[in-house]
Specification:
The chain is α/β, with parallel strands linked by helices and about 350 residues long. It has 14 helices and 13 strands. It has 2 domains: about 110 residues, Aspartate Aminotransferase, domain 1 (Alpha-Beta Complex); about 240 residues, Aspartate Aminotransferase, domain 2, CATH 3.40.640. Helix content is about 40%, strand content about 15%. The protein is globular. The two termini are about 20 Å apart. GO terms for molecular function: transaminase activity.
C-alpha cells in the first residue's frame, strides 16, 4: 500500500541507512578467498566462540560455544526451530500480546495451542498474576520479547524476580526469550537478559539477530542459545530445516564482533533518532507512548480520530502518504487501543517529513 500510494514507509522494521562498509568488505573478502561452501550445521566454531565471548563480556555468564549456541537463518528460524523441537500436540504456550507475528503460527504448526495473554497498559509490562492464572498442567512454554516489539518496553528488575519465582514454582515450564533488540536500549537503562542469571539461563531458550544489530535485516542471520540438552533437540529441527547458514557472512561477523564498539554503540545512534522523531511530532495531536528500546515508536491517535486503527492506518497511508502498522495487528483478537507503530530506523530527512505529515493532521 505504501508503494502504491508513494507513501513514506515507516511501517516495516527495516533501517534505510547502509550497512557498515567494513562489514561488507569482510563478507566480500571471505567470498574472494573461497569461504563459499557449507559451514558446519551448528555454525562456524569461530563465530560461536565470538558469540560466547560477547555474552560473557556483557553479562558475565559463561556459555559453551560447542553445545549451547547454534547459528540460525535469522531470529525467525531460531524461534521456529525451537518451538517445533520443544512443543507439540496437547501442549500450551503462553504468548504475551501484542506479539511479533511469527510466534503463534509457529506454535500452531507444531500442533500446540497458543494462549495469548495481554500485556498491561499503558506500559506493556507483563501481568504476572494473569500469567500465573493461565498456567495449566499442559503449559509447556512461556514466550517473552524484551526490548518489546511493537511497544519499545523493557523488563524491569522486579520482572526478573517474578520470572524467577514463576520458573521455580513450575519446574516443567520453559522460557523462550526473544532478545533481538538487546543492543538498542535507551535512557541509560540496562537490557536485563535472562542469560545474566544462571538459574534463568538453565531454563531458557534465547534468540538473537545479527540482522537487527548490524542493520542488515536482509542477510537473515541470527543465533539461539540454550542449555545443551535443549539445544540437542533444537539442532535436530535446525539440521533438516535449513542445515546451515551463509558461510562468508559467518566468517565476516566473527571478525567484526572482535570490536565491541560495533555493537555497543547502537544505543546512542538510535536514541538520537527516537528523540528526533518524538520531538518532531510533539507539536501534533498524536501522543508519544514512551519507547525504551527497539527502533519503534508507538503513537496514540485518540485525539485525532475515532476510526479503528486498521482503517486509520489505511487512511494515513492513502490520503496523507505515511505508512505505519496498526498495533491491533499484533493481537490475536485484534484488540484496538488506537495505537500505531512507526519505525524510526530512518534518516532525519525521512523522520522530519513523516513528522510534518502528522503535525498537519
Amino acid at each position: 500500500m505504501a508503494t502504491e500510494n508513494n507513501a513514506l514507509n515507516l511501517s516495516q522494521g527495516f533501517p534505510e541507512f547502509p550497512v557498515s562498509q567494513e562489514l561488507i568488505d569482510l563478507v566480500y573478502r571471505n567470498m574472494q578467498i573461497g569461504h563459499n561452501q557449507y559451514a558446519p550445521m551448528p555454525g562456524l566454531p569461530i563465530l560461536r566462540e565470538a558469540i560466547a565471548g560477547k555474552i560473557q563480556h556483557i553479562g558475565g555468564v559463561a556459555i559453551n560455544a560447542d553445545s549451547e549456541i547454534t547459528v540460525t537463518v535469522g531470529a525467525a528460524e531460531a524461534i521456529f526451530s525451537s518451538i517445533m523441537a520443544l512443543v507439540g500436540k496437547g501442549d500450551e504456550v503462553i504468548v504475551l500480546e501484542p506479539a511479533y507475528d511469527c510466534y503463534i503460527p509457529a506454535i500452531e504448526l507444531a500442533g500446540a495451542t497458543p494462549v495469548p495473554i495481554p500485556l498491561n497498559q499503558p506500559d506493556f509490562s507483563p501481568n504476572w498474576q494473569l500469567i500465573r492464572e493461565s498456567i495449566t498442567s499442559n503449559t509447556k512454554m512461556l514466550m517473552i520479547n524484551y526490548p518489546h516489539n511493537p511497544s519499545g518496553a523493557i523488563l524491569k528488575p522486579e520482572d526478573i524476580v517474578e520470572l524467577k519465582q514463576l520458573l521455580e514454582d513450575y519446574p516443567e515450564l520453559m522460557l523462550l526469550s526473544d532478545e533481538v533488540y538487546e543492543h538498542i536500549i535507551f535512557d541509560g537503562k540496562e537490557h536485563l537478559s535472562v542469560l545474566k542469571d544462571v538459574f534463568l539461563a538453565s531454563r531458557s531458550v534465547v534468540v538473537y539477530s545479527f540482522g537487527k544489530t548490524f542493520h542488515a535485516t536482509g542477510w537473515k542471520i541470527g543465533y539461539v542459545v540454550a542449555p545443551e540438552a535443549i539445544m540437542h533437540e533444537i539442532r535436530k529441527v535446525h539440521q533438516y530445516n535449513c542445515f546451515t547458514v551463509n558461510t562468508p557472512t559467518q566468517f565476516a561477523i566473527a571478525e567484526y564482533l572482535q570490536n565491541e564498539n560495533n555493537y555497543l554503540s547502537l544505543n546512542d545512534m538510535y536514541e538520537k533518532k527516537r528523540d528526533f522523531f518524538a520531538n518532531a511530532v510533539s507539536a501534533s495531536k498524536f501522543k508519544v507512548v514512551p519507547s525504551y528500546g527497539t527502533y519503534f515508536q508507538i503513537l496514540s491517535y485518540d485525539e485525532v480520530s475515532d476510526l479503528p486503527d486498521m482503517e486509520f492506518a489505511e487512511k494515513l497511508t492513502r490520503e496523507y502518504g505515511l505508512a505505519s502498522i496498526p498495533v491491533s495487528a499484533f493481537y490475536s483478537n485484534k484488540k484496538d487501543d488506537h495505537l500505531l507503530r512507526f519505525c524510526f530506523a530512518k534518516g532525519e530527512d525521512t523522520l522530519q517529513k513523516a513528522a510534518d505529515i502528522l503535525c498537519r493532521i
